[in-house]
Amino acid sequence: MFVDDQMHEYSIVLALMERIEAEAAARGAVAVHRVRLRIGALSGIEPVLLESAFSLVREHTMCESATLDIERVPASWCCPRCDRSIAAGDILQCPDCNEPARLQGGDEILLEQLELEVP
Amino acid sequence: MCETCGCGDPHLVPVEVRDRILSVNDRQAAHNREHFSAHGVLAINLMGSPGSGKTAVLEATARAFAGRYRIAAIAGDLETERDADRLRAAGIPATAITTGSACHLDASMVHDALHGDELQAPHLLFVENVGNLVCPAVYDLGQTFNVVALSVTEGEDKPLKYPVMFRKADVVLLTKIDLLPYLDVRMDELENALARVMPSPVVFAVAARSGAGMDRWFGWLETQVASVAGLDRSQAGHHHHDHHDHHHHQGD
Q: Is A101 helix (H, G, I), strand (E, B) or coil?
């Protein structure tokens, strides 16, 4: 897998690592065993590239042997007035109400949960 | 206690974080947004492919508003200051951010550039992002609006291929429409594709070189400048503003 610092997934992982290290330091953790993320289909983050960047960046860090779990969230749109769901790829306007569709989920770039080893 | 696998290891502690990975950038963007709002600055994050015509649109916009609005620009480029040089030649004070290898601008880069002397309290600040239809969409800069330049030479399917970028767009500028006679691209298909990735598409078809369609873009900018700056500046938007040669503070 091609990985370099020209992908924004690399900067996402750097931001992630800073956040993890702060959480770990606050709890006196010595290692991170699991990192759970939620990544939306419309977030602009490619999970495969994120995994590659993570495997590169985590060397010699607390995350060296951590498992990375990425939950992918599909894009979901609906009408803000009648709640009718509008499929991704369709015209993003309610066919009944003519209201612009609202994104309900799919833009997440979230750190959900960590499993820390605390001696 | 490890609650995931039931191994009974007493040293594994699950921590619910549930926070945006980019929360540091989000905070910096919120700070920039407050700065723009307090100073009545309309800040436009201009994105688009390399060669989509971002700099040409800004050059034409600078010419159109010369003597009426103070315009400033921050230009992000991987290498060189060529875009910033072109903007300065068009009369816009411009700061270059040479990102080296980074494929996008982030909120702290914009914040640092704002503290350059050249960019004090413009009516209109353009942040010309790195030419790229993917990465810049991920980072909030604190802008008032996202504008995406898409040249008609790029084809009808670009919005469907890059839905993240177009979903973030408040306005799409379809550029280089003076080339349409030489292309097979169909404008109705392009607009249909935009409607599948943008819930409320605002689209201006323009040609910076011939000036075609640019009046609608300028009119939109005038409306937005007046809206963020309040009454004083909307009056200045008419042609008969006063001719003091000293520096105005907002609210003068």
A: coil
Say whether A114 and B134 touch across the interface (CB within 8 A).
no
For residue B86, give Cα distances in angstroms to B60, B75, B82: 11, 10, 6
Residue type, B153: T
Mutate to test the interface with B, among A11, A70, A98 (most CBs of B within 10 A): A11
Tokens of A107: 């833009």
Contact B199 A12 (CB under 8 A): no
- pTM over the 0.80 mark: yes
Strand B145-151 relative to strand B42-48: parallel, antiparallel, unpaired?
parallel
Enter the CATH code of domain A4-75+106-117: 3.30.2320.50
Look up the ipTM and state it: 0.91
**B138 to A90: CB separation less than 8 angstroms, yes or no:** no
B130 half-sphere exposure, CB direction, 13 A CA radius = 27
Q: Which residues of chain B lie closer than 8 angstroms to A7, CB-CB?
A: 103, 135
- Render pLDDT for B29-38 as a digit per residue (tens, 0 to 9): 999 999 999 9
Chain B positions in Cβ-Cβ contact with residue A11 (cut-off 8 Å)? 102, 104, 106
How many CB pairs below 8 A link A and B? 113
Strand-pair category, B145-151 with B171-175: parallel
Give tens-digit pLDDT for B119-135: 668 999 999 999 999 99
Are B106 and B160 contacting, i.e. CB atoms less than 8 angstroms apart?
no
* Ranges of each domain in chain A: 4-75+106-117
| Chain A residues with beta carbon closer than 8 angstroms to that of B140 | none
Q: Where are the beta strands (DSSP E) in chain A?
A: 31-40, 67-73, 76-78, 85-86, 102-105, 109-117
